[in-house]
Model the fold of this input.
Amino acid sequence: MKLEDEKIIELYFARDEKAIAETSSKYGSYCLKIALNILGIMQDSEECVNDTWLKTWNSIPPQRPRIFSAFLAKITRNLAINRFNYENAKKRSVPACAALDELDYCIGEQGTREDFDRRELERIINSFVSSLDERERNIFIRRYFFSESTPEISEKYGIKESYVLTILSRTRKKLKAYLVKEGVFNG
Amino acid sequence: MDNRDLFEAIGGIDEDYIAQSENYHFKNRHNILKFALPIAACLVLFFGGFAVSRVTLGSKKASDTVDYKDYNGNYQKEAADAENAVETCKDEQAESAECSVREVSDSEAKAFFEKNADSIIQKFGPYDSAGINLSGYYHVSVNENGTTYLNVSERHYLVTINEKIAGTAALYYDGDELKYEINNDKDYASALNEAFGEYHDGSLIFADYPGGSEVIVTSANNVYTVKGNSPDNPPDYESLYVAGGEVPGSIYREADYIRF
Done:
């Protein structure tokens, strides 16, 4: 019987190490999938998930996650991206490359302002995501947050893969236009 | 800033949206049964004054919109309660409104492609002979009373190069502006070619109906389909069904497809 998220979080606040076991039991596969979607190598992904538990242990308290699954997803994704950057520097091909290539379209050949900080870009992305309709938003998040493949998204939502591809393509165009409007690019 | 900065910034998406994408169910807006039963549940709630605890839809519950998968792979189902049924009705109303977007007519499509065909086809790569079939396809809904035309808001056209399917071009209105979107994904085109081979005559219809959907390619004398497009029933491009005969069986009623 898996504990409810609130009770797991209370274990963290009580500094009870059972918190990690319960988190791993409930969200182990979930976090592993996120890491694997980015890294593509089981061993690296498992290490990334172990790092997630450590990071979570160190973050709660003081933080109190509002949505525990999303909180864990963000940590796992960030850790996987850090590892991805390291692996990519070694020129190893990893699954996230495909999603990155797709996002290249949104940047294009245009010069971008160097003074854009990460927090400002996050605000713009959040504003953009909230402007999308529900379907576009969910498909966008599955592809570019969770790095799921288009066949996976197609199966998850029970829609044609061609429809997923169409929506993603259209959303990338919208994102590019949105970035232009927000002054991310020079000129 | 580069694509990696963008990718990293996407990590800052609001947690509510991330969680929603886990639980989201892509509702089939043409599914008559799914539409009718939640409405019925609302009426029972309104007039009967008691909560509807469960509404069944075949082997599935009408509470599909609140089903979720726990993260270690075990499906957990929550019973449909009254509040849920009301929410579903609201969703369906919103979906209906969404269906009322501007349609693309045959003549508009023809005029658009006559003007833009070259630039569209260029995006599919080098070619000796290419074409966009103006038969197109769009979503249809089948119910027990026959075929109903729905959602003509977006029309898809097969693009062929040297008689092979190279992908599709979708035509739709964004406000008052007619736009197109191509799908030149090689895997998708390859799947269509493998499934349909020389059988296609360039027109293709996607049919949505209660319980599933199909991709349909028509020819002068037959209707060919690829069945399945749902998590429980994934597309099977290996199975080619031909109307009116074995390979295998009669699976398609003539009334269920539209040629135009």
Observations:
- Chain B has six helices and 14 strands.
- Residues 14 and 20 of chain B are 10 Å apart (CA to CA).
- The two ends of chain B are 48 Å apart (CA to CA).
